[in-house]
């Protein structure tokens, strides 16, 4: 039996149209379900970072990461376990304004979960919570009986515990090679 666990993959590339489709196809072909997906600019100008989570085994995650890295538009791809990264997600909850104004129960939950109220109007209130999945789920579970109207949770965002992006070392190596080839 395979020992499956949640892995986080960081993929670095220039912002290229169609790359997301190429990457997700790799997961589809292996019949792996992407749990979360987040794409944003990275700390390196002009480079975007895809953060993908998937439940699988060590052998499969290694193969998938190598296959992703072979894509022409991908600069690098790395996979991590939860103990190698710092991660969070953001959740938004919309509740009826009466739930917030009618009693202090919602306000107590907001404080209990270290959430914050983003907007309140006559119709609804929007609450935001940043945390781990079990934290955002716990607030969801407690708000449901009060009439939760809408709920959305972002994909995982993650940074490594390393002081620099692994891609920085790669780019420095590429630059040094260009300098050496230009000097000959």
Could you please describe the fold and organization of this structure?
- This protein is α+β, with helices and mostly antiparallel strands and 184 residues long.
- The termini are far apart.
- Helix content is 36%, strand content 36%.
- The radius of gyration is 21 Å and the shape is elongated.
- The chain has helices at residues 19-29, 58-69, 97-102, 105-112, 133-143, 166-183, and strands spanning 5-13, 34-41, 48-56, 74-80, 85-96, 116-120, 124-131, 150-153, 157-160.
- Strands 5, 6, 7, 8 and 9 form a five-stranded antiparallel beta sheet that branches. A four-stranded antiparallel beta sheet has the order 2-3-1-4, with helices on one face.
- Strand 6 and strand 7 (124-131) form a beta hairpin.
Strand residue percentage: 35-45%
What's the number of helices? 6
Main structural class: alpha+beta
Shape: elongated
Rg on CA atoms, Å: 21 Å
Oligomeric state: single chain
User: What level of helicity do the residues show?
Assistant: 25-40%
Mean pLDDT: 87
- Low-confidence segments, given as residue ranges, are none
Distance between the termini: 55 Å
Pattern of helices and strands: EHEEHEEHHEEHEEH
Describe the main β-sheet briefly: 5 strands, antiparallel
In total, the number of strands is 9
């Amino acid at each position: 039996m395979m020992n499956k666990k949640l892995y986080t993959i960081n993929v670095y590339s220039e912002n290229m149209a169609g790359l997301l489709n190429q990457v997700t196809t790799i997961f589809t072909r292996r019949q792996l379900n992407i749990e979360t997906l987040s794409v944003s600019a990275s700390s390196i100008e002009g480079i975007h970072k895809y953060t993908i989570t998937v439940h699988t085994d060590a052998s499969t995650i290694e193969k998938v990461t190598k296959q992703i890295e072979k894509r022409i538009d991908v600069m690098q791809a790395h996979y991590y376990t939860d103990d190698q990264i710092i991660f969070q997600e953001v959740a938004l909850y919309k509740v009826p304004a009466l739930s917030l104004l009618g009693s202090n129960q919602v306000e107590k939950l907001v404080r209990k979960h270290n959430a914050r109220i983003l907007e309140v109007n006559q119709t609804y209130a929007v609450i935001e919570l940043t945390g781990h999945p079990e934290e955002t789920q716990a607030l969801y579970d407690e708000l449901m009986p009060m009439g939760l109207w809408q709920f959305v949770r972002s994909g995982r965002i993650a940074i490594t515990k390393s002081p620099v992006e692994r891609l920085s070392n790669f780019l420095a190596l590429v630059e040094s090679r260009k300098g050496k080839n230009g000097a000959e």
